Amino acid sequence: MIRLFVGIQFPAPVNFQLRNLCAGLPGAKWVNPDGFHLTLRFIGEINNRQAEDLDANLQAIAAKAFVLQLRGVGQFGQLEKAHTVWAGCERNESLYHLRDKIESAAVRAGIEPEHRRFSPHVTLGKLHRAPVDWLETYLVEHAAFLSQPFEVHEFALFSSHSGDNGRLYLPEATYSLHP
Fold first, then answer.
1. Which residues contact 35 (CB under 8 A, 6 or more apart)?
2. Is the pLDDT of residue 166 over 90?
3. Is the C or the N end of the chain the one with fewer CB within 10 Å?
4. Which CATH code is given to the segment(s) 2-176?
């Protein structure tokens, strides 16, 4: 069994911008900057046969490259019980189109359909009893975050592994988008 997800990696300048958001919040366990990504479809644990089918289906996706920009920050969970801080993503029809094609590829590989609404974001950190006033200040101070625009010319199938410093994400295959 292998734990997989499909996502987009960022160019170094965008990773640097994201890294600068990862400070100033007690109770936050920040994501290793090498692990920044935008998840298009979480797959979970699947067997090798399903992984091969998924890979073949992802290779067959025909979609165009597009420009993406990250914008703003937020949290998952009520302020008092927030568990994650994230950077958001500007609405982008090409991103949603690609995500829909990936969803179809996963279902054709025998993977259960995703029932959660797609909410594109980059996880910055996990929270453990972050003081509400600090979280509110953090959110206000970074509300105007805007990454430089970047071209998305590929997406990847990642494996996810537990490590001493959190999760380790390894690209198993990459898939090019058309110019």
1. 166, 167, 168, 169
2. no
3. C
4. 3.90.1140.10
178 is an active site residue = no
Query: Which residue of the set 37, 115, 128, 178 is catalytic?
Result: 37
Helix/strand/coil for 179: coil
pLDDT of residue 10: 97
pLDDT digits (tens, 9 = 90+) for 68-105: 999 999 999 999 999 999 999 999 999 999 999 999 99
- Whether 128 is catalytic is no
DSSP letter (8 states) at residue 116 = S
The tokens of 74 are what?
């937020």
How far, rounded to the nearest angstrom, does the alpha carbon of residue 48 sit from its chain's CA centroid?
23
Identified catalytic residue from 97, 115, 121, 161:
121
Q: Give pLDDT, residue 167.
A: 79
pTM of model > 0.90? yes
